[in-house]
Amino acid sequence: MVIAFTLHEFMHAWMASVFGDDTAKNAGRVTLNLLKHLDVFGTLLIFIAGIGWAKPVPVNSTYFATRRVQSIIVSLVGPLSNFVLAFIGFSIFYFIPVNQSFEAFLNIFVTLNVVLGVFNLLPLPPLDGYRIVSSLFPTNIQMKLVPLETYGSIIFLVVMLTPIGDFTILPFISSSIGIVMNSFYSFYELLLPN
User: Fold this and answer.
1) What is the pLDDT of residues 64-95, one digit of tens each?
2) What DSSP string describes 92-124?
3) N or C: the chain end with fewer CB closer than 10 Å?
4) Does this UniProt record's set of keywords contain Zinc (predicted)?
């Protein structure tokens, strides 16, 4: 989780900085230091409810040259970093014989990163998927969505912390994990046929 959350938030901050927005950089967020990305409440929820989050990276898209496209890229690189980490972990497991303890670590590492990648692509505030989808809308509609984001976060927590999630979000995440893992296997089977 330390690796997955830290790299995820670092990528958001670094990409925004590359595109000309130094908001996150000035806040000390272009770093791989976990403590800079730690959210106390989000961390506590991980131990209490099994879900949680890191501190969101502040992004000011008015600094972007191509606001819509670069906003989408900044939002996308976080989940993408989790898929890359999962693929690296899967590749180590696939190619290198490891002992039972390290195998258990890799299994958790890969699964956690796939879950985080898929989870963050859900189009619900405050997740990255919502930022991606909302960036596709015209500016006037985006402005109308801003007041709804607070309520969206509350609704999201209710869904995730109650049985409602068992019938909505969790089945989608479970099936998506299978799709991603199968794509990893298929990639190597195609690349290295027996």
Assistant:
1) 999 999 999 999 999 999 999 999 999 998 88
2) HHHHS---HHHHHHHHHHHHHHHHHHHHHTSSS
3) C
4) yes
Q: How far is CA 7 from CA 30, 53, 178, 180, 189, in A?
A: 10, 13, 23, 20, 28
CA distance 85 to 149: 29
- Is 9 tagged catalytic? yes
DSSP state of 20: T
What tens digit of pLDDT does each residue of 137-152 get? 888 888 888 877 777 7
What pTM, to 2 d.p., does this model score? Answer: 0.90
CA angle 160, 169, 45 (to 5 degrees): 25
- Give the chain's largest Cα–Cα span: 56
